[in-house]
Amino acid sequence: MSGGLPISGIDGIAAPGWSRVADVFAANFEQGLELGSACCVYFEGRPVVDLWGGCADDRTGRRWAEDTVVGAFSTTKGATAICTHMLAERGRLDPDALVTDYWPEYGAEGKDETRVSWFLSHKAGVPAVDAELTLEEVCAWEPAIRALEVQKPFWRPGEEYSYHAQTFGFLVGEVVRRVTSSSLGAFFADEIAGPLGLAAWIGTPAEVEPRVAQLVQAPPPVDVEATRLTILENLGIDAASAPAVLAIMDALAADPVAPRAANLGGAFPDGLLALNSPLVRAAELPASNIVTDARSLARMYAATIGEVDGVRLLQPETVEAMCVVQTADTPVFGAPDGLEEFADLFELRFGLGVMRPTRQAPLLGPSSFGHGGAGGSLGFADPDAGVGFGYVMNRLITDGTNRRAAKLVTAVRDCLDSL
Q1: pLDDT in tens, 354-401
Q2: How far apart (Å, rounded) are the C-alpha atoms in residues 40 and 297?
């Protein structure tokens, strides 16, 4: 690495002109923010940063190695979206088509006019399931599909939006299965991971298990009020606006649908730490259970905007269509009072399966698209900058103060400005 590695326990490379990313990566460890993590940056189709370090398993002291992989939660959604748009590009799937054109059984209970694009943009009206599902039923796929088929939507599909944390994967994945007669995890393996040589699985094989890092939940903040002030500071909120913003944060935290959306009707009693289970990792959950490394995320996204070792996943016109924001003029389901005034602070701008830049999605520039995951992971591409980016970690920070990926993205921007 240019200039050497900043602290013991970090390994990898940073090409000349990219050492700032290594400095920030090291600083995240020095500030006590990381247990183990990895970061990779592709620039114009080649890797210029590839870093890893720390501890992969605090129970045994196993170090984070070059081939360590980890569960990356909703970063999965970006990979799932890419699969969908590859099929669209091949003429096998139309995002504007009715879901019932591919999946007739889905049309029950007022869902018959649902478009595939509404699955991708979180407008389908089924962010959670009404049925009580066990973990085993969710991992088996079919029980969740049957539950979604007979469910009434929370709102008239297409008219509002709310994050479909887990149902996104079943909804989009079932359309892919109907179109291809293959599961989404298998399609991803055959069409993306295989050709690009990625260490990435939606449905992790048993032989990979010894390489998987153990996820650890960061402890809750000792000083809750100080944490809330830190969040406001990160959002750039002035003192006059602080009370109104805090009230919105409290209302969002009290939303009864969000926990059911994340836990899929109680199927994940251990919350995020369910992804420490080999059973959950082996299942195919196309919204939330990709197991991968930073190198593979960066390489995958780089291949959506250019050629990587002879492989290109999407053509420019497909990327352009994928990135059109679908939620700009769509109300948020159950939005608390005052949200509209501060929409720029809380909005999630969804394209067709990918996030676009907002304060909540710390991407690189206005052309960026990708997806983050609970606890801090992030993958994205920036066509204008020619960048593919990946960051994964095993220490989950969920209190709203997580800035690790954002700091790394800022460092990438600084390096680009200096080239």
Answers
A1: 999 987 777 999 999 999 999 999 999 999 999 999 999 999 998 888
A2: 8
